[in-house]
Design brief:
Elements (H helix, E strand, L loop, with lengths): L6 H18 L7 H12 L10 H4 L5 H11 L10 E10 L2 E10 L5 E7 L14 H10 L2 E5 L11 H16 L5 E11 L1 H15 L8 E4 L10 H5 L8 H11 L22 E8 L3 H13 L4 E10 L10 H21 L1
Parallel strand pairs: 3-4, 3-5, 5-6, 6-7, 7-8
Antiparallel strand pairs: 1-2, 2-4
Length: 345
């Protein structure tokens, strides 16, 4: 017969377990520049996205608003970075027309092209919110960015966003010459949900035996629905993205969880996909799946350049104006694009 533990030992064990659980849910500390943005975001008094309707969530202050506040507090301009022109166009997709925004750098051309898909969990945000990213990439990679405002859930559930993403890709191949782009050098890329759409377009092109993108830029992509990974556990309460928000996004997206066009990690094989640049952030629930996806791509023979940035959060990419590590990540992404474009020249 086993001897019962004394109550003091049980109490001590309970306290230790609670403390360990709290510690596990405590995200890593943000570095100073990132913390300024997080503090600015907190001061804007947004409500937790997961407690809101999609309509309400779309009106909440964004990390972009926080960056603008930091710039204002520093006495710096919040005007978009110069050196890029933007032209608005319309694409006809399977569910109707949707807008695209053509970011063109200075220079002669014809330029290589990248389809850029914004983040926001397939539910919130648009190209305007993410403007700094395609603007920076256009300048740094000397490439045209075709930024896509795909249809969003829950009004347009899966596969609407993926269908629009692919329609924008095929439209770009057909029309690139009209806006001084090179139709033989077209890449895909995006952040978070947009990173998902970029690699989904690559899968679709492979499966349809269509012209393949020359490269895929995946910035902390959503590629799986496993919410018990080490990074989900560590960053369950992180800002600006946490575990409850991801559950809210998945609920509204309404995707088939077995479809690789919803969750690319479910693909039987990733063979034949284009080379990839993958950017990851330490303080991000999506960190583990981004690394796992990079490893799977490599295993299936795809060339991958992967880089993880410590002390920064989900959404840091595009914050180059105030977060030096974001500027570094933008350059890393642009270098990957240039390498792929040059190889295809």
């Amino acid at each position: 017969m086993k001897k019962a533990l004394p109550l003091t030992a049980i109490a001590a064990a309970l306290v230790w377990n609670v403390a360990a659980a709290q510690d596990a849910a405590q995200p890593p500390k943000a570095e100073a520049h990132m913390q300024k943005v997080l503090d600015a975001l907190k001061s804007l008094n947004g409500k937790p996205i997961e407690t809101l309707s999609p309509e309400e969530a779309r009106k909440q202050p964004t990390p972009t608003d926080a960056v603008k506040k930091v710039l204002t507090d520093m006495g710096k301009s919040t005007a978009p970075e110069a050196g890029v022109t933007v032209k608005d166009m319309t694409v006809q997709g399977p569910g109707g027309s949707f807008p695209v925004h053509i970011y063109t750098p200075e220079g002669k051309g014809p330029f290589p092209v990248m389809l850029y898909y914004h983040g926001g969990g397939f539910v919130i945000a648009d190209t305007k919110v993410y403007d700094a990213s395609p603007r920076a990439l256009a300048k740094m990679a000397k490439a045209i960015m075709v930024a896509v405002d795909y249809r969003q859930a829950p009004e347009h559930k899966f596969p609407a966003a993926a269908d629009d993403a692919y329609a924008a890709y095929t439209w770009t191949l057909q029309h690139a010459k009209e806006f001084n782009g090179d139709p033989m050098r077209v890449a895909v890329g995006g952040e978070s949900a947009g990173g998902n759409l970029a690699t989904v377009v690559s899968l679709m092109a492979r499966d349809k035996k269509a012209q393949m993108p020359v490269h895929q830029l995946l910035v902390y992509p959503v590629v799986d629905n496993d919410m018990n990974t080490p990074s989900y556990q560590r960053n369950a309460n992180a800002k600006p993205l946490n575990k409850p928000m991801m559950a809210w996004f998945f609920k509204h997206y309404g995707a088939d969880p077995s479809s690789p066009y919803a969750l690319p990690m479910k693909a039987t094989s990733l063979k034949g996909l284009p080379s990839a640049t993958i950017v990851a952030a330490e303080i991000d629930p999506l960190l583990s799946e981004g690394k796992s996806y990079a490893d799977r791509l490599k295993k299936d023979g795809v060339k991958v350049d992967y880089k993880e940035y410590s002390g920064v959060t989900h959404e840091f990419f595009g914050m180059g104006a105030v977060v030096p590590k974001a500027k570094d990540a933008e350059q890393f992404a642009a270098d990957g694009l240039k390498k792929a474009f040059d190889a295809k020249r």
